[in-house]
């Protein structure tokens, strides 16, 4: 047992806004000249945000997931705009009733606050360690990260399946509410497919 936390960027079609319009939207407001243009406004996504990953810019939302280590099923998910840091959604994802106490995640989730949170819930941290400026990881820590990666990589299989075998990750909806529904359906569809695979492997996958 155990749970693996990770997040995947879900792109949406980009809005072609001016710089001023984008600045207004980022503040959570609606540009003034859109007020009397309802047709234009309903075609604009006011909830999606930009983020950078590996030096590339992405626009859309994030699918934050809690994946069962043993069966590779999405046990919980939470949808946010793409600019929300992976670690900010942990309270929505962590589960107490898992058969294993281990929690795996990449270094983006590691902090003193996170480690304390896991201890309070009697969960064991297998979160990757990260080096600090002027204090790189020791060889022992690097080896520990490699070992943890052999488990954590299982969540990448899910995102890979959604991207390559299930119509891609692009969501053509407008707004957070509809994005949540679309991403939730994609997670559900993956689970149904995975349950079918588990049924072929074992008659009792639970």
UniProtKB/TrEMBL annotation:
InterPro entries: Transpos_IS5, Transposase_11. It comes from the Bacteria. Pfam families: DDE_Tnp_1 (PF01609). Keywords: DNA recombination, DNA-binding, Transposition. Residues 129-149 are annotated as: Disordered. Residues 4-192 form the Transposase IS4-like domain. GO terms for biological process: DNA transposition. The keyword DNA-binding applies. One of its GO terms (molecular function) is DNA binding. The keyword Ribosomal protein does not apply. Belongs to the transposase 11 family. This is Transposase and inactivated derivatives, IS5 family. The lineage of its organism: Bacteria, Pseudomonadati, Pseudomonadota, Alphaproteobacteria, Rhodobacterales.
């Amino acid at each position: 047992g155990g749970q693996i936390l990770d997040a995947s960027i879900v792109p949406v079609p980009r809005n072609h806004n001016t710089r001023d319009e984008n600045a207004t939207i980022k503040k959570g407001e609606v540009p003034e000249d859109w007020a009397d243009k309802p047709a234009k406004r309903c075609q604009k996504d006011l909830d999606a945000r930009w983020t950078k990953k590996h030096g590339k810019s992405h626009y859309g939302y994030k699918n934050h997931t809690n994946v069962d280590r043993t069966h590779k099923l999405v046990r919980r998910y939470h949808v946010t705009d793409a600019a929300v840091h992976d670690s900010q959604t942990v309270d929505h994802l962590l589960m107490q009733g898992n058969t294993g106490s281990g929690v795996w995640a990449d270094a983006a989730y590691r902090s003193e606050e996170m480690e304390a949170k896991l201890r309070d819930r009697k969960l064991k941290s297998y979160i990757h360690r990260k080096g600090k400026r002027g204090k790189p990881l020791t060889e022992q820590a690097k080896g520990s990260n490699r070992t943890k990666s052999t488990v954590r990589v299982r969540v990448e299989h899910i995102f890979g399946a959604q991207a390559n075998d299930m119509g891609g990750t692009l969501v053509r909806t407008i707004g957070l509410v509809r994005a949540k529904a679309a991403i939730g359906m994609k997670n559900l569809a993956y689970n149904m497919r995975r349950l079918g695979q588990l049924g072929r492997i074992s008659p009792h996958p639970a």
